[in-house]
Amino acid sequence: MRTGTYAPDRCPDTERNPMSVDTQQAPAQLEEDEVRSLDAHWRAANYLSVGQIYLMANPLLTEPLRPEHVKPRLLGHWGTSPGLNLVHTHLNRVIKARDLNALCIWGPGHGGPAVLANSWLEGSYSQTYPDVTRDAAGMARLFKQFSFPGGVPSHVAPETPGSIHEGGELGYSLSHAYGAALDNPDLLVACVIGDGEAETGPLAASWHSDKFLDPVHDGAVLPVLHLNGYKIANPTVLSRLPESELDDLLKGYGHDPIHVTGDDPADVHRSMAHAMDTALDRIAAFQRAAREDGVTERPRWPVIVLRTPKGWTGPAEVDGRPVEGTWRAHQVPLAAVRDNPEHLRQLEQWLRSYRPGELFDADGRPRPQVLACVPEGTRRLGATPHANGGLLLRELPLPPLEKYAVEVDKPGATLHEPTRVLGDMLRDVMAATAGRRDFRLVGPDETASNRLQAVYAASGKAWQAGTLDVDEDLDRHGRVMEILSEHTCQGWLEGYLLTGRHGLFSCYEAFVHIVDSMVNQHIKWLRTTRRLPWRAPIASLNYLLTSHVWRQDHNGFSHQDPGFVDHILNKSPEAVRVYLPPDANTLLSVADHVLRSRDYVNVVVAGKQPCFDWLSMEEAKAHCARGAGIWEWAGTEDGSRAPDVVLASAGDVPTQEILAAAQLLRRYLPGLAVRVVNVVDIARLLPGEEHPHGMSDFEFDGLFTADKPVIFAYHGYPWLIHRLAYRRTGHRNLHVRGYKEIGTTTTPFDMVVSNDLDRYRLVMDVIDRVPGLAVRAAALRQRMEDARQRHHVWIREHGTDLPEVADWTWDG
Amino acid sequence: MRTGTYAPDRCPDTERNPMSVDTQQAPAQLEEDEVRSLDAHWRAANYLSVGQIYLMANPLLTEPLRPEHVKPRLLGHWGTSPGLNLVHTHLNRVIKARDLNALCIWGPGHGGPAVLANSWLEGSYSQTYPDVTRDAAGMARLFKQFSFPGGVPSHVAPETPGSIHEGGELGYSLSHAYGAALDNPDLLVACVIGDGEAETGPLAASWHSDKFLDPVHDGAVLPVLHLNGYKIANPTVLSRLPESELDDLLKGYGHDPIHVTGDDPADVHRSMAHAMDTALDRIAAFQRAAREDGVTERPRWPVIVLRTPKGWTGPAEVDGRPVEGTWRAHQVPLAAVRDNPEHLRQLEQWLRSYRPGELFDADGRPRPQVLACVPEGTRRLGATPHANGGLLLRELPLPPLEKYAVEVDKPGATLHEPTRVLGDMLRDVMAATAGRRDFRLVGPDETASNRLQAVYAASGKAWQAGTLDVDEDLDRHGRVMEILSEHTCQGWLEGYLLTGRHGLFSCYEAFVHIVDSMVNQHIKWLRTTRRLPWRAPIASLNYLLTSHVWRQDHNGFSHQDPGFVDHILNKSPEAVRVYLPPDANTLLSVADHVLRSRDYVNVVVAGKQPCFDWLSMEEAKAHCARGAGIWEWAGTEDGSRAPDVVLASAGDVPTQEILAAAQLLRRYLPGLAVRVVNVVDIARLLPGEEHPHGMSDFEFDGLFTADKPVIFAYHGYPWLIHRLAYRRTGHRNLHVRGYKEIGTTTTPFDMVVSNDLDRYRLVMDVIDRVPGLAVRAAALRQRMEDARQRHHVWIREHGTDLPEVADWTWDG
């Protein structure tokens, strides 16, 4: 089953790297019987992979293969599977030989059949799913359920034992691997990277993670770059570089490449075993040097470059066209098995080429030779608790909030930068986990810009590259992670959380869209794991979005986008939460809540600029617990009747404008009964049937009334509020102001004026919507209009906000 | 103004690359007077950069600097500016010396002051903005307007002459540069990449673009990797690698590095000039070899590594802390100039250090020595038409659609794969532009998977890496671009469109979220350029989203996300359009429309799986022109009275289910007057005030009625339809079905059943919502419920859809 097309030496440059361990050079270290037993394991995994894609009956081929044994819909990815099986087989060998604590990230997770096959072989599958036994009946179930309605997904997925990584989207394997290795000094994280995935941006960036890996406190990452040459329909870039150029690239990433190349199984087993041993010896030496000898030089960690044919051992040709070793092996090489007798014959021949009789006994149990390389208990890759991180999770030691709370005797009398206040709390969380090392703060070069720099007093920034005397807060052993790649930050944090630790991602609000697609996958993961009883809950993925849309004084339009909240709220409601704390104490309360929570993606939007303190710590806790509530002190209701109008807000800047509007109304229309409502937990606006935090209509009407005008000042795109509240009784009376894509480099107040979110416009909205006010308050309306005009004139001349705005305070 | 901290030789590895051209090795090629005039230009640009950040009066320092000359709000980025000024000065030199046709992409576009300064110096700024004259009055305007309310943004922006790239988000400079170079054989695209940006994923991936650049038909890209050592608050990874490791990396990317290192201006001028000459000589030699000698070996294109201090020539220390050469120089080095006399003194000293009297005459005009290096006319970087691509744009030769139209005698009688039909049309567009070379198709390894492979008959896939005999459709001169990086695809296409050409991006629907943040920036760019009269309209950015949420039979949940439409519809309505053609002919009509359009981002969602043909080409054109309309042939209205219910749909799969529901209703409830409405252009649902395509209430009510139940089957998240239609009179009667995040690897019909979008559920919705039907049609409702149950049982057993569904046809 060789093809003429697979010939690595036909690459333009055949110069070999001196570190290369290939079939020509590899010493025959393995005993022949070990080669045979490794090969038996590999063949068994390959057999089981093909079986999952094709068979719904006759799993052991105890009778000749007939069309009705074959699934009616053939779905799955064969191409990458033999390579994954090879890596799994050889990881088994070294885990057992060295008693390693190991986890593997399967980047080409499309090859679900491979990882499922190995889990079934090692017994971790049956342990997790007792109905899929390690015998003929279980094998039949394993085969039928794969990619079958009601069965299991075709990729490595949350349902797959031993996995923390869905291999569907591609790009995140290596950053996940690094995240898993952080603060796990005894863990080896192998990471198979497909040459397709290697073309993605997130993967390309994450190679530089080695400049952030502490050889003392972190474990090791062993990347296995699998060059099988093709994607769905194209050759891959890396597989078509001259080997010297690829080596330059990997060395440039800080790695020392070890090559394994071939298509003869026995030769490849020998050279893969040698490569694994070489890599693990080097890793052990680096760790020893750093931990015992105090060496601080950054190691050139090994990377294995595995070059084997796509769809290796599958049909060489189908319908006269080469398949093995080409892109045609990507999914299902024989597509018409039920209708085309030649395809059926080829499938049977293919399955029998693995000699199943040698691999499984009559009851379908793997024979001892097949299992010789398989480790025991939690050493098995499908049974490691690191892949079910909730099992290892400890409560985060959170300090009492009162220690950081801002003193608030009366609302709006003082100003604080909310994120700076939070920074003090995070510093103490960092300090309290100094020994346990299970909390990390990540951010794309923005921790200080986001005013969280107090944390540096408890932990510096992880850094293993060169240093200069002028540097500050860099720390070989630091747990603050900063790289200018939102993708890498997200991947690190996901890997860290999925392996049972805690963390926070602080990010500019606009640029968190860079990870829109990554967070989709994480939410999908959580939605699925929440329904799997064997998956223990993990710490939530917490975003602190700051440097937000209303305060981009330095950067303007390119840095203005509040739409991440919209994106998140499209996703599975059981897994997503969004909070917009309006001041420092509410931010503390929300942060405390999200850091304690499990299995959510929490989005917290909060400002870093000085912001009025509205609530005391006690009030803040109560308000955040309700998620939305009336601020009686800010309104003019006397309790004797319904309010004339409700002024509502969500977000720090809108809250300030709403309160300024309330103050204007109190002053100029003292008879108007105004209710002020603040919303922290935005999902509260949804009906209870749509989101676990949603309100009943009774609650909603109690807060917003069923029939009075509601002027809602919202932090983001105004139609989001309508999308959440469209079913409410009083929805027709809801009028929302928010960001409508009008932005540039300008002052804070000019931003709100430009988007019609300013206090003057809000007062005008009240006048326009409360019955009878249009006439009664015509003069006030004109006064408001004049104030907006005054703003426009002033700002063009002075470049600053009107003094009456800049110096405004709450006088309630 | 040297700091002790800037010392490249303190990097761990001081081994020099043999290609390195640094201050120690550079031959003194330049005449002394040329060094002096280059330095004068550079100092002038630096002076003007500082002036923009700080001054609102006294631009020539004709009097001692006083606090009132300084802006009240100091906003901008100094750190990168001197480096950009250096590159611009030296590009000027080589453009003039070699009469180059050049464009520059300024990756560190935060340094807006630098590019504005250079544009003003060369006169392109005054040419574009005549009120900002090249004299003292204009200089005063240039200074005051910068980052000032009502003025110009602080970054390189659409408003900046000579730019196609906003340097705010970071990550896209190099892919933009490649996109600009494609099919522009005589163009040199210089691209400054900051060492911060270089850490991002999109940038890291885009280095491999050199494997797709055709030295025959494409121009050259000259990356200038600017290592100034720091981001906002951290050292950069690449600046802290040993030089040999950085060289390995760049060689691994396929480049040949040329180093320029230093902090002595005269030395750096000499070595930069030498590096530029070396690089351009090599580029010319590679192009000659490919074009004249037929050499096909991939060139190792040069890259210049420029290592100069951050904030070079700025204050060495401020308040006792080092600033020049550190991250503290990132934004505004002296922050308290109006209040702190020492800061004011330092600012004046800093400004005067450039010796403005030598640079500008008494009227503020640049002296001849300053302008000696500046090229003329459209050779100036601020005046090249390639940066205002609409000027170069030609109409795309689009064939008559009838040639590809599917024959439709009666609706629903035949099936076609819509994207495959479109592929034939795209093939002919590709063929018709074979000589002009101004159309490209990009996609992440998915052109064939998306069934557009007919295009290969007209153009193969661009590929300059190694090839094997088994490869198909690879082409050194191809205009189909496939790399497994959505970021790179998007960046290439943006660069291509912005320089005045045409294209289409085909992408899996779920994974287009990978470029959410990139498309944000492109939309922001378009929104701004649409308001700039000097910017000529460019071809729209067209997405074809296929392999969509309802047909992920192979891949399941990870590949299911229809939310890009929601993301796009949050953005500036003047620039965004979304189409959901329900069949092949409507897809042809929509494709024709979007390929003719200008200055939009068009999102087209269409299936690749066999789909019923509903409309003839003529009907399709009329339907698409309306954007939404009644399909009379599908309903049971007799025109004598209002319908009892409206069945509406948008998207191919929902349309099939709606029609199947209409058929069930016709059969079982023949007396019910059913109207069937189809929506292609989703923004039609918005009010006219909210979107240019929005309908008036009169139109809307005419289509959907003001008071009848509307059952709307939508392709994506159902609440989007509510968000668009919440203001409509009959909104209370609108009931939307769509995708609600329930997905896995399963059959097409199981997907719609799981999400309550199936025909049986839609019929039940009608029964539940039409007054009086609940009783009258109770039996039918039960029959529908039974059908859903039958489905659940059947699929678990057979793994396929019910025969009655699989074999369904329209019998209208």
Automatic annotation (TrEMBL), chains A, B:
Biological process terms in GO annotation: carbohydrate metabolic process
Region of interest (Disordered), residue spans: 1-31
Leader peptide range in chain numbering: none
Cofactor(s) demanded: thiamine diphosphate
E.C. numbers: 4.1.2.-
Keywords, comma-separated and alphabetical: Lyase, Thiamine pyrophosphate
Enzyme class (EC, first level): lyase
Domain Xylulose 5-phosphate/Fructose 6-phosphate phosphoketolase N-terminal: 30-391
GO MF, any single term: aldehyde-lyase activity
Domain Xylulose 5-phosphate/Fructose 6-phosphate phosphoketolase C-terminal, residue spans: 608-810
HAMAP family noted in UniProt: Phosphoketolase
Family named by the database record: Belongs to the XFP family.
Protein name as annotated: Probable phosphoketolase
